[in-house]
Amino acid sequence: MFRTHTCGELRLSDVNKTTTLAGWVQTVRKFGSITFVDLRDRYGITQLLFSESLNEKLEANPLGREYVLQVTGKVNERSNKNTNIPTGEIEILVSDFSILNKSITPPFTIQDDTDGGDDLRMKYRFLDLRRNAVKRNLELRYAVGRSTRNYLHENNFMDIETPFLIKSTPEGARDFVVPSRMNPGQFYALPQSPQTFKQLLMVSGYDRYYQIVKCFRDEDLRADRQPEFTQIDCEMSFVEQEDILNMFESLIKRIFKDVKNIDYTENVERMTWEDAMWQYGNDKPDIRFDMKLCNLKFPGHTFPSKPVISALIDGADFKVFDEAETVIAIAASGCSEYTRKQIDELTEWVKRPQIGMKGLAYIKYNNDGTLKSSIDKFYPEEKLKAIAEAVNAKPGDLIFILAGAEERTRKATSELRLHLGQFLGLRKADEFKLLWVLDFPLFEYAEDDNRWVARHHPFTSPKPSDIEIMINNNPVIDNPAEYLKHPYANIKANAYDMVLNGNEIGGGSIRIFQKELQQKMFAALGMDEAEQQHKFGFLLGAFEYGAPPHGGLAFGFDRLCAILGGSESIRDFIAFPKNNSGRDVMIDAPSTIDDKQFDELQIKLDLKQ
Amino acid sequence: MFRTHTCGELRLSDVNKTTTLAGWVQTVRKFGSITFVDLRDRYGITQLLFSESLNEKLEANPLGREYVLQVTGKVNERSNKNTNIPTGEIEILVSDFSILNKSITPPFTIQDDTDGGDDLRMKYRFLDLRRNAVKRNLELRYAVGRSTRNYLHENNFMDIETPFLIKSTPEGARDFVVPSRMNPGQFYALPQSPQTFKQLLMVSGYDRYYQIVKCFRDEDLRADRQPEFTQIDCEMSFVEQEDILNMFESLIKRIFKDVKNIDYTENVERMTWEDAMWQYGNDKPDIRFDMKLCNLKFPGHTFPSKPVISALIDGADFKVFDEAETVIAIAASGCSEYTRKQIDELTEWVKRPQIGMKGLAYIKYNNDGTLKSSIDKFYPEEKLKAIAEAVNAKPGDLIFILAGAEERTRKATSELRLHLGQFLGLRKADEFKLLWVLDFPLFEYAEDDNRWVARHHPFTSPKPSDIEIMINNNPVIDNPAEYLKHPYANIKANAYDMVLNGNEIGGGSIRIFQKELQQKMFAALGMDEAEQQHKFGFLLGAFEYGAPPHGGLAFGFDRLCAILGGSESIRDFIAFPKNNSGRDVMIDAPSTIDDKQFDELQIKLDLKQ
């Protein structure tokens, strides 16, 4: 060992002990003939005191930032204590030292507030990882993993590894493929998830499976997506949806306790997908604050169970509302005194191309109970008041109204809600609100191919009450214009998403476990029997040998860690992330390969000009 | 939940409880009007009793092997107890049941002694995994992983994930590569190990890292190799070899305790590579038994510190020995009364092509102290006695002597030793003997290229005392015939292998952490500066910024589990293994991919005729 203690270990109670430390030089400060060095390692920082007697050696062996240093000395009580760090009451009176390795000047400072830009820090990731801020993230990630494993172990789950070199069955996302040298002309695929393997394990009787496992998707990378990412992947047999929700909300509560020391004792809220879309405008609502959407006019096609309340705005001859497919209001609490300028800024905000609205109407519900609006030319005060009541506004609130095409308007209002929530300080970083979103539609309509696609994936079971509808109807859509009237449009899935502070952190479903229903599902997605056999013959085969009822879910491990760490960026919680072009700029990958490799793999490039 | 208890849970103390179980039908037995069913799940088997009142329902819903069944009933004390299983004192008086899923007849029996052959069980792996024998293996694997994680956690190691999509730097083994769609013409490689990344983590200050991680090598698969395999991968900073040996022999001892309940209290033996090769003929000796090799004649070139004792056999005018490069003897304890037939069989055994020797001489050291030999025409009794003494034989032993080319003869004698050890019952399945093999040569000579290759890998440090030799000498070999006289031939590595019962279960080294020495190493392996920069520029760069002294090792997780489970085959300890052609015959992978995939990846096939 190059050390007897770490740089985070020594305390007042260790005074007079002889110690050897090893670490990195954080700072060197000279005071007259005395030199102070802050020595850093993974565990902390310890102050070193080099007295005059070492000056000759120090001159022959000058110290620099990030030098690797080994020192021996005695633990001494500091006269000038630093109460900000655990070792701040002591220092080491160095008797001897040795430079284990030198460092050239780092391209950025190794500090919480570094002067390094993103690109530089990615290129020198090995230096960025030295920064406390990044180290804390990786420590949190390790703690989340550890807590997860402990909880699942205590609940009889088994970690079982599934293969990485599997079969390409592109459904939705693109596979990364791997040419097989031993089977020329054939390719493996890297798993997008261990989905079919964990289902096979259920067929095999391993009734509680988990894995913290890398998955791969070759997708164009939007901000905060990675081509390789990590899932907490779980599956259980002999369970219904309720069992899964209980098991895994308890997992997240356990992680809150272990990692953040938060007692999340309240029940986890539950909401149907329809309610989420209706009340919050998206399927992963941030319920740390209320400010629900109010549909003032809606043809009711996507959400058949929701009321149409267009009478509130009808008959006023206001073309913008009359001609809009959807008109949605929200009330910003306590904002009735917003200035013209503030409202103009918000109007510009919703008109940005990312939001894409044409304008923003408002109603000020003044503290004295009067109402003032940008649309009072069309709506008398009593109408405005009815709208205010519909959107649950109180005196002192400011009501915003957006109008336009259904999907865009809903999305825009949802964005505006989050924007206002952020601005009004309602999205508190230290508040955590879990939510289950339930009863998703099983299918989505793919206009290009005039067919159904699986909203979740092809293994998700319909709600038990909808199985008959699925079995007894032909999935073919005869009239594309009226696809919403097809019986499949209303089939609900036995699927669930877990949402934390407006982020989807996990999702899953009860699976199909009957061969016939699985075949019906594949057929509904446009797969003929030959394709079903080629891609999923092994699964259909397995279902013939006594498949148990089962279901599961997967958490996005990177994102869960990021949110627990109070960050929006998963990249900060991955030791060696890739950039938006899927490149690792530190090791410079991907890169060219040798002719010999092409030759052995029996492939060649076919580059487009 | 489909159940209130598992099939392994109920005991006498549960009698009269109402219970619901779910599982698979193992057997159905009818006795008159009563039907007994053994219901199986992951946790065990419970006997069900269907009384006459259920016969009508049973006739309408007949049960078959591997049907998935849910039953409700009362726990009853059995009159006919089965003491072989934990639930053997009770049975369930079934009041109602429901068939959750049916099964067609499995292609083999789901029993410890199945009637299924290897190929069939691989194709229906999901059924093979139901067998107790396979389930026990996966449970052991999980327990080994769990024990490993607990131990490393307690010792401040952090599990940090390293990337799977990295850069191809073929050194030794072939990489699997992954075409990058977003970077046309470029490829990722799958890691052969996280070696360089864990070293970067040391540079980053994460002084105790581990991962249980998949690695990939595209090699022709000998029996018991897999293209994807799992390592327990570890690295530490500020350590010397001694620290690593202590840390990781304690890990293995902990696994013995946690998984096998074995108290491995004795010290782990250590042996130099030279001694292992000299005394056992290979670098992973099985030291559960003695039977050391005795070199009767040796030119002394590969093992410079070993004595040449050819005087024992010189001057007898026995051409076979005189002309052989090497003559090696071993003594089989208590075998002096072997018959002519037994010795002939062993002679045939060493003449098999896999062993490749021309013959087998023997000396019987009779219980009365006389000696009888197949070569007594050439050697008088006193000479034979001298040989017997040299090989540590006692009266009652049988000495075998092999002669031929050095490497082949050494290997053959080592194989003969293991063969005899097996035959004589000296390799006990329930005895575990750990061994560290130390002081490997740093380089091996590559005849084809007349250059050095790294015996371990290019990141392994020479012994501190040999660093000067490496720095101060030119690696170029001027005279290929005399490569053994090159100073590099005798450089020892700071490397270590852990051997368990004759199997290498892990290995590692103290790493090079100085840029100049790393460059010298790359140059010694024939890499010019451009190639060094292209392949490992990131590592050389990182070494400029204060790399600490560090070292580590990796255990072969699959093999470790196999040996602990008493098996020679790692395949039995992998949930979904591949066959010797790298195929997963269950899912039928690898397979062809779509034209669209080729098009997007901008590659095409280039198949040889």
Keywords:
23 strands; homodimer; 609 residues; OB fold (Dihydrolipoamide Acetyltransferase, E2P); Gyrase A, domain 2; eight-stranded mixed sheet; five-stranded mixed beta barrel
Radius of gyration from the alpha-carbon trace of chain A, in angstroms:
30 Å
CATH class of the domain at 289-427 in chain A: Alpha Beta
Q: Provide the CATH architecture of the domain at 289-427 in chain A.
A: 2-Layer Sandwich
Taking the alpha carbons of the first and last residues of chain A, their distance comes to 58 Å
Average predicted local confidence, pLDDT of chain A: 94
Adjacency order of strands in the biggest sheet of chain A: 6-9-10-22-21-20-17-11
Count of strand segments of chain A: 23
* Range of helix content of chain A: 25-40%
Largest sheet of chain A: 8 strands, mixed
| Poorly predicted runs of chain A | none
Q: Into which percentage range does the β-strand content of chain A fall?
A: 15-25%
Shape descriptor of chain A reads globular
What structural class should be given to the helix and strand makeup of chain A?
alpha+beta
